[in-house]
Write a structure and sequence with these properties.
- This protein is mainly α.
- It has one domain.
- Helix content is 57%, strand content 0%.
- The protein has eleven helices and no strands.
- Helix 7 crosses helix 8.
Length: 246
C-alpha cells in the first residue's frame, strides 16, 4: 500500500513563487518580525477586498441598468436596424470600440441567451463607463444620445456634479477600485475606507438608501481599524501546521 505523505507546510518562498516576489514583497514592512507578518497582511488585505466587493457589485448592477434604461428611452421611436439581441446595444449606434465589445459579448452568450438582460450583464463595467464619454451626448445624432438625460437619473448628486463628466470620473474611479480588488492588488496602504466611500458616492447619487445599507453592513472600517494582527495566528497555522489539513 502506497504511503500518503502530507503536503509540505506553506512557506513565504512558496507563496513568492506562486504570487511573484514583487507582489508578495508589497505586503512586507521594515518593522516586520518575520515573513509571517507579510502573509498575515496578505490575508488581511484579502478580507478587506472581500468586504468592499458587495458594494462594487451593487454599483455595477445599478449603473448598467440605469444606463440601459436611458438608452431605451432615448431610442424609442427611432427607426433602427437591430442585431440578434434586438436592443439599442446592437443597433449600430455605438462607437467602434464599444460596438466590438458588444459583438464579442453576443458571441460569448450563444444563440440561447441573446436577450437584452443577458447582454447587459455580459458587458464589463469599463464598457458602461465608456458610454459616459462625449460621443454619447445628445448632440451626436448617430449615437443613442444618453447624455445629458442620464445625468438626471443621478438625481441625488450635488447639482455641480450632476453632469456627464463628473459622473464619468466617479465611475471611472470606481472601475479602477474594482480592478484593484479583482486582481488582488494591495489595498491596505491605499486607504480602503476611502476607496469604499468612493464607491458609495455614485451609488448614493442613484439610490441613497442602497448606499446607506451597504455602508451599514460593510465590515471595511472594522477590518481596517483592527489591522493585520488578528490574521497573524492564521498565517502561523498555515505556515507551520498546514500538513494537518491533508
Amino acid at each position: 500500500m502506497t504511503a500518503i505523505h502530507p503536503p509540505p507546510p506553506l512557506t513565504y518562498s512558496l507563496l513568492a513563487r506562486a504570487l511573484s516576489t514583487p507582489r508578495l514583497a508589497a505586503y512586507s514592512r521594515e518593522d516586520d518580525r518575520d515573513s509571517v507578518d507579510a502573509i498575515a497582511r496578505y490575508l488581511w488585505n484579502m478580507s478587506v477586498g472581500g468586504a468592499i466587493w458587495p458594494t462594487v457589485h451593487l454599483l455595477e448592477v445599478a449603473v448598467r441598468n440605469v444606463l440601459f434604461e436611458v438608452g431605451q428611452e432615448r431610442t424609442k421611436g427611432r427607426v433602427l436596424t437591430f442585431g440578434p439581441v434586438g436592443s439599442w446595444l446592437d443597433a449600430g449606434l455605438l462607437m467602434p470600440k464599444e460596438q466590438a465589445e458588444v459583438n464579442e459579448a453576443i458571441k460569448r452568450l450563444g444563440a440561447g441567451r441573446r436577450t437584452p438582460g443577458h447582454l447587459i450583464a455580459e458587458l464589463t463595467l469599463g464598457f458602461w463607463v465608456r458610454v459616459c464619454n462625449s460621443p454619447y451626448e445628445q448632440g451626436d445624432a448617430n449615437r443613442p444620445r444618453l447624455w445629458p438625460s442620464a445625468a438626471f437619473r443621478f438625481q441625488h448628486a450635488p447639482r455641480r456634479e450632476r453632469n456627464r463628466e463628473d459622473i464619468r470620473k466617479a465611475l471611472d474611479n470606481a472601475k479602477d477600485i474594482r480592478n484593484r480588488i479583482a486582481h488582488h492588488h494591495p489595498l491596505w496602504y491605499r486607504n480602503p475606507v476611502r476607496m469604499h466611500e468612493d464607491l458609495l458616492k455614485p451609488l448614493g447619487w442613484l439610490y441613497p438608501e442602497m448606499a446607506d445599507a451597504a455602508r451599514t453592513t460593510s465590515a471595511v472600517r472594522e477590518l481596517v481599524k483592527a489591522g493585520p494582527v488578528p490574521y497573524r495566528a492564521l498565517a502561523e497555522s498555515l505556515t507551520t501546521a498546514s500538513a494537518r489539513l491533508a
